[in-house]
Amino acid sequence: MTETGLRVGQLAAHLGVSTHALRAWEARYGLFQPRRSGGGYRIYDAQDVRRAEAMMARIASGTTAAEAARLVLRRLPHERPGDRASDPHCTPMGPAAEAVPTAELERWREVLVRGCTRLDEPAVRDTLAEASQRLATDDFVDEVVVPLLRSLSVLTDGSGGMGIAHAYFAGDVVRSALLGRQRRALPMGAPQLWLACPPKELHDLALMAFGLVAADEGWAVRFFGANTPLRSLVPLARRDPPTAIVISATRPGPLRAAALDVAALAEVAPTAVGGPAARRAPSLGIGVPTLIGDIVTEARALENSLHLRQPA
User: Fold this and answer.
1) How many of the other CB atoms lie within 10 Å of CB of 71?
2) Residue 107, CB-side half-sphere exposure with 13 Å CA sphere
3) Per-residue pLDDT of the chain (312 residues; tens, 9 = 90+)
4) C-alpha to C-alpha distance for 36 and 188, rounded to whole angstroms
């Protein structure tokens, strides 16, 4: 630590996230305004540290990165709006798309939740299609898909007026929208990414959204989905090793039960665990990197998190 602040690597270590995530939050949301030291290093002051800690806390509570940044900056605004140090690493992530007003985003979210509650498939399908067409991949996931999944989780917890049937209905429509957005062709030699949930883990839509962003980043994604017998992937990985593997779990139980299989996969290819249960991975005997940030940032930063070569 310097006398007046932290460098980006020190701030990343303090938070337990990658430097790529911090730069992404600055590039996408304007979360920080670091100054330059005499030696040219980016220096984050105490206010930046508080913003970063608040951002992490909101993401951990289930808030999307975009909404978390808005809330944090509302509570901890910058003193010098727009005055940010330039950084060659701080570039916007994902392709450009239409700038959709916040009111329109909120309308989409309301229509989607109402449509799921009423089992109104045309309304849900058409709204997802419109959002997918008008938004870049990152924004589609962060502003539409993740908020919908979070709303469904709240509404189907036994007190929100929706039942298991509603969850299956919504899951099917969201799955179709994500599949429809996936790229059909990838360049020859694209790095291979395997995505799977351990046995007894049935929630895979967030992992599918992760795969959508990863595919946009240049990965060739092989999606195994929910309730995957991870042990059966080990011989496949030995025969044709992927570039990386990500295992996702919402609950610690399935992840704990799969610890040996995750370790076996990690011996074959760089492996990480994500999802809400990833925060408890070390205490569950899982000794691989954890992806605990928001979906978009972690997918964009995967090669850095696993110390891999940048995908072509």
Assistant:
1) 14
2) 8
3) 555 788 888 888 888 877 878 888 888 888 998 888 777 778 899 999 999 999 888 888 777 788 888 889 988 988 765 444 444 444 344 444 557 888 999 999 999 999 999 999 999 999 999 999 999 899 999 999 999 998 888 777 655 567 888 888 999 999 999 998 876 566 678 899 999 999 999 999 999 999 999 998 889 999 999 999 999 999 999 999 999 999 999 999 999 999 999 999 999 999 999 999 998 888 888 889 999 888 998 998 888 888 775 444
4) 41
Tell me the backbone φ, ψ of residue 225, rounded to 5 degrees: 85, -155
Residue by residue, what is the 3-state secondary structure of the chain?
A: CCCCCEEHHHHHHHHCCCHHHHHHHHHHHCCCCCEECCCCCEEECHHHHHHHHHHHHHHHCCCCHHHHHHHHHHHCCCCCCCCCCCCCCCCCCCCCCCCCCHHHHHHHHHHHHHHHHCCCHHHHHHHHHHHHHHCCHHHHHHHHHHHHHHHHHHHCCCCCCCCHHHHHHHHHHHHHHHHHHCCCCCCCCCCEEEEECCCCCCCCHHHHHHHHHHHHHCCEEEEEECCCCHHHHHHHHHHCCCCEEEEECCCHHHHHHCHHHHHHHHHHCCEEEECHHHHHCHHHCCCCCEECCCHHHHHHCHHHHCCCCCCC
Q: Among all chains, which residue has been given the structure tokens 């925060």?
A: 279
Task: For residue 233, give the nearest of 264, 188, 187 by alpha carbon.
Answer: 264
Residues making up the chain, counted from first to last: 312
Q: Which two tokens stand for residue 245?
A: 């593997």
Cα 260 → chain centroid: 25
Distance CA 261, CA 198 (A): 9
